[in-house]
Amino acid sequence: MQCTSISFLILPLDIGGHIYVIAILILVIAVINYMNLSTARAGLRAKEVGIRKASGAYRGDLFKQFMGEALANTVLVIPFCLLLVELLLPWFNQLMQLNLELSLVENISLISILVLFVTIAGLVSGFYPSVVLSSFKPVEVLKGTYSGAAGSNGFRKGLIVTQFMISCGLIMATLTITKQISYISNKNLGFDKELILTIDLGNQSDRPSGEVVKNRFLKNPHVQKAALSFSKLSSFTNMEASVIRTDNSRSSGRFRYSLIGPDFIPLMDISMITGHNFRKNVSEDLRNGVIINEKGSRILGWQHPQNAIGGQVSVIDGTVRTIIGVAQNFHIESVHQDIEPVVLFAESGNFAYPKTLNLKLQPGNIGEAIPSLQVAWEEIAPGIAFNYQFLDKSIRQLYAKEQQTYSLFLWFAALAILLGCLGLFGLATYASQRRTKEIGIRKVLGATVTNILGLISKDFLLLVLIGFVLAMPLAWYFMNQWLTDFAYRIEIGPGIFALAGGTAFAIALLTVSWQSIKAAMANPVDSLRNE
Questions:
Q1: How far apart are CA 109 and CA 97, in angstroms?
Q2: Based on the number of CB atoms within 10 Å of its own CB, is 307 exposed (0-12), middle (13-18) or buried (19 or more)?
Q3: Fewer Cβ within 10 Å of end Cβ, the chain: N or C?
């Protein structure tokens, strides 16, 4: 497969849109980390700013200097980012079923986008810290009356809330996608998809008759059942016909249809609500009988399926056929679509045009079954490729996009939590250092480790809680929009929010507690010896 250079245009819109949005959110978290940690530790450069201002430096000069430092820091990480992309690209290609390569020389648009994002990230991340650092009053700094608290504490808290709002939102999205995928994976599709092998018979002029192939495979000890059909169950959607109720021409509809052998319904374990399957030795069933599903019965005006038995319908070429059975509804498409009306019939009793052989395999030893079937195939169809596929695998392929979306959100949610916790850890470390003497005095007065832990942790955990509360309605709205693409879907219940909030809260508590416990366990003598 030919490789494609990375650009904004190479990803499908439904997948690429997710990647671009999440990437921007991750970048926002990283920028917030830089702003928070820069302003929190701005006091370490207070004397530098005081001396420079006392020496005649203007605030604008200092602002330009600090903005330049922020841009330089952003530019310096580009080589490491490109190296990381090069290392992770094979994994990403495998995850998203793509074949991309990183080519800066051949892709001018990528260079332009990279420069644009570097500039924006550098300017945004450096703006507020530069304003704070350049605003120090030299008199306070040089007299020693500067308190060490830089910037607006409320603004920094707002940034932390934003970080964890994004992180909690991604966790909620990941949990919702996980639950929906679990739902569609375990949903009763109306048939048995396990251990079903479909073999492509192709053009009958090139191959032995379907009955010959079927009977030969039935002799294999690995095969339980075999049945012929015009197409695979998942390919019924390729054929559509108008079905008209002969006693009421207004009762008609477009039905999906296929030709099947009498063994097909038992093999697929499709339940019959009323009536019966095609009977092998009853020519009337095979020549003139049809089986519809429950959805088809309702479309044709029979609200009670048993009333449809014996009904006359005109199918395809105007031939009038008799309904001999009504099957339980079964999915022939993904759960994105609603159940389709289906009509099944046999062709003239001799099944002249089968294209698919369906096999129900014995459980266990699948690794031995396939080679033995291939040997049998080569005996009856030498020189012709043995094309087969497991039905459950073809059904899983219907949800490849959802699996990719799930993997995408899982990894990026983990990255968002990691970045958020790194910033939280840095701020907790700085808060502990600033309050070293306060913690020492409290311990001398009898405060326990638990008291100190609560003192340092409560403010940060409150911010995490606020971020979680703000994330809930946003996550609920966007995930409900995503779920509207499914005809059969889960409901976003309180369990998802509780699990997401509990996860974020627990991770944040562990992050803050590590530094808080370290500060609480310190010997108060070390912090108070100079007082």
A1: 23
A2: middle
A3: N
